[in-house]
Amino acid sequence: MSNTVTIPESMLPRDGRFGSGPSKIRPEQVQALDAGATKLLGTSHRQAPVKQLVGSIREGLAQFFTVPDGYEVVLGNGGATAFWDMACASLITRKAAFGVYGSFSEKFAIEADKTPFLEKPEIFRSEPGTYRLPELTEYVDTYCWAHNETSTGVATPVKRIPGSVEQGAITLVDATSGAGVLPVDISQTDAYYFSPQKAFGSDGGLWIAILSPAAIERAYALEESTKLEGARRWVPAFLSLKSAIDNSRKDQTLNTPSVANLIMLENQIRWLNDNGGLAWAHARCAKSASLLYQWAERSEYAHPFVEDESARSTATVTIDLDDAISAKQVIQALRDNGIVDTGGYRKLGRNQLRIGVFPSVEPSDIVALTKCVDYIVEHL
Length: 380
Ligand SMILES: *Cc1c(COP(=O)(O)O)cnc(C)c1O
Known about the structure:
- By secondary structure, the chain is of the alpha/beta class.
- It has 2 domains: 17-23 and 277-376, Aspartate Aminotransferase, domain 1 (Alpha-Beta Complex), CATH 3.90.1150.10; 25-271, 3-Layer(aba) Sandwich (Aspartate Aminotransferase, domain 2).
- The chain is built from 10 helices and 12 strands.
- It has a 7-stranded mixed β-sheet with strand order 1-9-8-7-4-2-3, with helices on both faces. The protein has a 3-stranded antiparallel β-sheet with strand order 10-11-12.
- Helix 4 (103-114) links the parallel strand 2 (96-100) and strand 3.
- Helix 7 (259-275) packs across helix 8.
- The two termini are 13 Å apart.
- GO terms for molecular function: alanine-glyoxylate transaminase activity; L-serine-pyruvate transaminase activity; O-phospho-L-serine:2-oxoglutarate aminotransferase activity; pyridoxal phosphate binding.
- L-glutamate binds at residue 46.
- It is an enzyme of class 2 (transferase).
- Its cofactor is pyridoxal 5'-phosphate.
């Protein structure tokens, strides 16, 4: 049974949530729900109050990411997973190329592979703990990879594949756990998309995409093409990026959103911008991450999983433990003490801790966490 080790109260982090998504939601975000209780919750998303909330989210994100002229912040229901299917229906013309180096980068590639009206995708694969970007390939019109591979703790560069623009191709970057932490030049992407339950410390179920004029044009053209006689493409209403764009321009979503989630998200974006935006968030997360990596380097029983230091994520930190110490036991003992979601990605199956060091997490709590892990390992 549980409670193998009791950590002294004084050593515990102030907040014990270290998940890689869902991740810590700040108490102020929950208070914002209370403040919006009668004005927003339980009211129509087609009326001014909720539309203003969505407008504030779109403007706040445009500011946070220093979005270039002509780019638009678009949102809809379903999370990043829904956006993958939307991209298959509404963004990939014929054939995509993928960098695949973990579970999340692979999932999108699998969807494209199964889409009956697309060619089989080109896959550029590397081992978990490393990354590989897609390479320039003839006939490819869409290049895809993940900014942060959440299953392994690997961060990648976001830079267009040379030659891809000349080819007329667009670049889609899954930024679900990287957005809000990793520096990014949005002009290097055509869709920089994410769900808000990671760095934006909200709930799941929503996707947000920052779209370039080329991506918007592509979405409209592909939907138009379905009207041609003999067209094989199918764009179901829910996967129509065109209708998501049309709705977002009116500060709405195609179907009913979680208003509570919008309130928490709006609060988080304002908090981030008020503190100094992406530069501040990045510095704060980099500090938390380096506290963990340095602790692991010093430790006799732990070491960073990702060997290439430049690819080590500052959003989700993966730390291998020596075989003599059971990560499973450590994770359970942490949980018994109220420190939760420190486990590695299930399917990766390593003897590993994985810590989400998103902006909401206090670096001082990361220090406390490392001490708690040491304490558990000493006392197990
Ligand atoms: C969490 C995650 C997803 C899945 O997000 P959902 O909101 O559950 O669809 C996709 N990609 C990456 C990189 C993630 O970290």
